[in-house]
Structures are given as C-alpha cells and as structure tokens.
Recover the amino acids of this structure.
C-alpha cells in the first residue's frame, strides 16, 4: 500500500522535519557573542527559502497546506475543528447534516448561502485551496531552479496543485480567478481573469500529465486526471487513464496527533458535535445509515449525550476517522475501478457489474486497509459489523444502472470529497434535474424552512479586490 508522499516518506515525517529544521535555524540564530542580543526566530528572510536546504521544508509545507485545505485540521480553528473541502462538500450534499449552531454551516447544509458580502463557511476552503495551490507551485519553482531536474518531489507538488484545480472546479462557481506571481513576486495581470469550470478541469489534466511525466509511478496523478476527465465527459479516456492502477493502490492524506494542525479535520468536527451522518436527506439523499453498510461505519455518540453541539440533533459519528491521526484516502485503486465501471455503463454494463461485485466481494479487506483499526471497531466503539456485501444484479434500465453505479461510488468514497463532484456530474453530464439529485423539500433543522437552490459555492468576497473579477459572474444556482 502507498502512503501519502510515499516515495519520500510520510507527510507526518516531513511535517515533523519542518520543526527540526526550524529548531536548527533557531539554535543558529541564538549562538551570538552577546547574550543580550535578541532574535526573532518566527521571522525568516524569504531568501532563505530559495536554497537547497529549504527544499524539504517547502515540500512539507505544501503537503501540510493541502491537508488543511482538503480535510481541515484543528490548530487554526480551536477545539471545534476546522472545515475543509471534505466536510463542506459532504454537508452541502447528502452525506452530512449540521449538528451545531453556526448559522453559516446551517445555510451550507440547506444549500442556501448567505450573501457573498456576509461571508460563508465555503470561504475557508476557497482561501485554503488557493494557499495550497500557491505553496505547491512555489515548491515546484524552487525545485526547478535549484535541482534543475524534475523528480518525484516535483511530481507530487504538481499533482497537489492539480488537485486544487479539481476541487475548486467541483465545488465553486464557474468563474474562479487563479492569480499568479512572476519570479519577482509581481502579479501577472492576465492571470487575474476567472476561469470557467471546464478550463479548471483542463488545467488540472495538463498538470497531472506533467506529474506523471516526472514520476511515472505516481498513480494518484492518474486517478486525479481521470477524475477531471469524467467531469469533462471523457469517460472512455478516463478509464484508459486508470487502467494500469492496481486495485490495492492507496494514496493517503496522512494526519497526526502530535500537532493540532495535523489532526484529521473530520474527526475533530465529529468530536466537537458539529455534524451528523445523514440518512435519505432531503428526499433524494442516499440511506447512508439505514443501509447498514460496512463502508459507512458509524455510531450514535455525541458530546452531549447522544446529541450534537446543538443539544437537539442526534449525532451519528463516522468511524472512518475514529482517531486524530486517522488518514484520509485522496485517491486509490477502488476509485480507479469505479471510474472504469462508470465508463462501461452504456457500452458494456455486464463488465461494469463485474467490477462492482469484485469490489463488494473484497469489502472487508478493502475497509481494513483504509480505516484505522477497522477490525477492532466493534471492541473499541461498539460498532456492529454488518454482513458481507451481497452481489448486485442488473436493474435493467439505463437510468437504474446509473443510479446503481453512483450509489456504489457514494458508499465506497463516503467522506472523501467526491460526492459534490458526482452530483454535479449527474446534472451536467447525464441530464438529471437538480431537484431529483440534490437534497430538496422541507429542511428539518434550525428554524426549518426549505432547501435552497444553490448547487455551487461562491467565490470569496476578497476576490472583489481583483479588477478582473465581478461577483455577478459567480452564479451558484446553476452549472
């Protein structure tokens, strides 16, 4: 199995290495002749980041920034945990519902954003994804400048940059600026113009291809490329892209417990009672709890008895992330097989069904390789393992076959940041109506009312400082 940044060791070791190097810099600065001299180790001359010794720090920093953007953490948001792309898209769709009291999270859950000028929870991931993109790009630039050759570090940085394009393309409106700086730190004016969604996915594909060229063993880049190809309606090409990815391949975003910034953001949010697993949410939602499916392990357990932070909503906590250092799958061989199944839905559904049933036959082993302590969840948390997953049969119609494949994707990829992209694709690529895809109808929490009409998130208010961006370009209720 491959861990996050496996070619050079885990992200936890790299992030720990940042502290070691920082300590070395501090000790060096403190070795002064005059004991009364004062130094500020928190201030680093930017030029020190442009040396060979700084390259491991830049790579580790980019990994850490991507971890925060994609799955959140706790070090920057206190004990309540910090939202990332995964928690936001899960709540916006049918995977999670709010169990806390923050109005911005409630409106996100209700698909009814506040006005961009008032701010929304989605602003956090927007800013963090761009910070992760810039960190990965800066690391690439310095690797190019200092090493002169593109190896596995450069490939990983390029792939993480590409994943930020995919994430922004799946969740945010089709008018996202990607402002770039030149080598002297001056804004490149033409980069300020917002990109359409298709442009974001196209840019992601070219960056994934760059990563693969630099490191042909980096299968997470192949899976990311195929994920973007699916959104562009290139299902056959996507299947070809992942054809050689082994089913047992796993690329984790690794988390740690030694530093709160490294904590698994989803675990922290559940621990604080902010969210609960949904079940047939808003008419169209899938039965994530009532299906009693081992791919969605959960328990009824909150900080306030069995309730979430609001003392009203029953909190069904996910056991995919039972500990602070539980890792999250960014890309794996299961996703590769699901991409192949989706591509075969109309051309060769028997082949698609075989793929799905092969995965189901190995469900126990797959879950044990992806969920920390899965075999001991019963002893540790009282989670009762359901029976093995029974084989599926052909439902007989194209519409039902698509439903089946999307349901299998939803359960296999639960709480890994894929659901919003899948619902978006159902509408854009397969012609489904929004009201038959996203949660709709009566909203049951915090004042009730109805679900809203939003299907995409807004661009952060601060982009209004960009002279080439106009908030009116950002439509959130249509694709």
């Amino acid at each position: 199995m491959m861990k996050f940044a496996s070619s050079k060791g885990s992200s936890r070791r790299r992030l720990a290495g940042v502290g070691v190097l920082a300590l070395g810099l501090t000790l060096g600065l403190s070795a002064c002749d005059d004991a009364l001299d004062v130094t500020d180790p928190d201030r680093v001359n930017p030029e020190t980041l442009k040396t060979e010794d700084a390259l491991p720090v830049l790579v580790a920093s980019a990994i850490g920034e991507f971890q925060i953007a994609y799955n959140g953490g706790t070090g920057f948001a206190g004990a309540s945990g910090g939202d990332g792309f995964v928690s936001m898209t899960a709540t916006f769709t049918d995977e999670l519902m709010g169990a806390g009291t923050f109005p911005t999270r409630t409106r996100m859950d209700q698909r009814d954003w506040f006005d961009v000028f008032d701010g929304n929870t989605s602003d956090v991931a927007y800013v963090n994804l761009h910070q992760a993109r810039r960190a990965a790009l800066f690391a690439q630039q310095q690797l190019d400048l200092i090493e002169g050759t593109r190896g596995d570090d450069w490939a990983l940085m390029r792939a993480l940059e590409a994943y930020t394009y995919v994430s922004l393309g799946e969740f945010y409106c089709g008018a996202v600026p990607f402002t770039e700086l030149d080598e002297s730190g001056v804004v490149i004016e033409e980069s300020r113009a917002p990109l359409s969604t298709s442009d974001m996915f196209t840019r992601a594909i070219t960056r994934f291809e760059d990563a693969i060229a630099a490191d042909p063993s980096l299968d997470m880049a192949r899976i990311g490329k195929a994920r973007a190809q699916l959104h562009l309606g290139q299902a056959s090409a996507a299947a070809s892209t992942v054809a050689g990815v082994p089913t047992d391949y796993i690329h984790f975003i690794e988390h740690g417990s030694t530093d709160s910034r490294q904590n698994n953001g989803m675990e922290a949010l559940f621990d604080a009672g902010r969210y609960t697993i949904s079940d047939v949410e808003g008419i169209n939602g899938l039965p994530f709890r009532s299906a009693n499916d081992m791919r969605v392990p959960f328990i009824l357990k909150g900080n306030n008895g069995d309730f979430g932070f609001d003392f009203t909503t029953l909190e069904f906590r996910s056991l995919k992330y039972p500990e602070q250092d539980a890792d999250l799958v960014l890309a794996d061989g299961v996703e590769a097989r699901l991409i192949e199944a989706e591509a075969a839905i109309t051309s060769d559904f028997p082949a698609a069904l075989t793929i799905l049933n092969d995965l189901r036959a190995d469900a126990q082993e797959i879950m044990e390789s992806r969920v920390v302590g899965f075999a001991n969840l019963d002893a540790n948390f009282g989670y009762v393992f359901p029976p093995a997953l029974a084989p599926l049969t052909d439902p007989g119609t194209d519409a039902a076959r698509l439903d089946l494949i999307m349901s299998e994707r939803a359960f296999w990829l639960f709480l890994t940041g894929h659901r919003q992209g899948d619902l978006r694709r159902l509408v854009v690529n397969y012609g489904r109506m929004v009201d038959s895809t996203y949660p709709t109808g009566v909203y049951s929490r915090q004042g009730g009312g109805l679900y809203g009409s939003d299907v995409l998130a807004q661009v952060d208010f601060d982009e209004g400082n960009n002279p080439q961006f106009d908030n009116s370009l950002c439509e959130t209720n249509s694709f």
